[in-house]
Amino acid sequence: MDIKIAAENFDLFYGDFQALKSINMKIYPKTVTALIGPSGCGKTTFLRSLNRMNDLLDNVRTAGKITLDNTEIYQPKVDVVALRKRVGMVFQRPNPFPMSIYDNIAYGPRIHGIKDKQQLNEIVERSLSGAALWEEVKDRLHTPALRLSGGQQQRLCIARLLAVEPEVLLMDEPASALDPISTGKIEDLIMELKKDYTIVIVTHNMQQAARISGQLGFFLLGRLVEYGSTEAVMTNPAQQETEDYLTGRFG
Ligand SMILES: Nc1ncnc2c1ncn2[C@@H]1O[C@H](COP(=O)(O)OP(=O)(O)OP(=O)(O)O)[C@@H](O)[C@H]1O
Q: Is the ipTM of this complex over 0.90?
């Protein structure tokens, strides 16, 4: 199978503390890969390593490799802005900009130099449709995004990513702050987006991981203890620690 992202013996240190220990993981295109594990095991750190978000902190050091389409992303010559356009991220709490729905979506394309009104209109409609939000907001595109519900705000943040035509979507517990109905909509959306995008998602919700992911990685104390198809890991884990976690014996 093709590989979109590969981590090879990847380590990450916050100062003296090693948060990721020799991670080896192949992430497949147009697949949902879920990362699970107890609090503090390194899931978010790994997710943020995939578009070099950790570079924003000054005490971070990495070793080993992460490649995107076979190109090493930690090479000094890599354009980090271009990398984050290709590999976008959605956070636990929706974070729309304090501006209109329209301007939230047009923000990225404008930064990348698109000024034509007609073209921006098309991007806004396409992105909101792609995030299953268009029908709900098409009549109030110029109202503040912060007036949307939490679930709508999260879909807006996904639409904002789609507007810059990414290839990979990183999602850090995107539904954990949402009610069950909004969570269901985000899950449906993820299943739809997987047809076109590679998705890596951190979740604490095992049922959610079972419902939406094709590949599953179990992290423990900075190590990737188990990785494989979600069905195989869930029904027949190779490691005792995975089984203990899945059956609720710890975590
Ligand atoms: N900026 C930082 N500086 C120092 N240590 C950090 C920093 N961010 C995270 N850590 C530490 O790195 C380890 C991994 O944290 P990380 O947030 O990746 O875990 P996680 O598995 O995502 O946890 P959770 O499920 O609680 O979000 C933890 O021990 C954490 O305390």
A: yes
User: What's the gap in Å between 221 CA and the centre of ligand 1?
Assistant: 10
- To 10 degrees, what angle do helices 101-111 and 150-162 make? 20
Class of domain 5-95+167-247: alpha beta
Element spanning 19, H or E: strand 17-27
Nearest CA among 50, 43, 98 for reference residue 220 = 43
**DSSP category for residue 38:** S
221-237 pLDDT, tens digit per residue, is 999 999 999 999 999 99
Residue 117: how many other CB atoms lie within 10 Å: 9
Global confidence as pTM = 0.95
How many Å apart are CA 82 and CA 215, to the nearest integer?
Answer: 27
* 202: DSSP letter: E
Residue 37 Cα: closest atom of ligand 1: 21
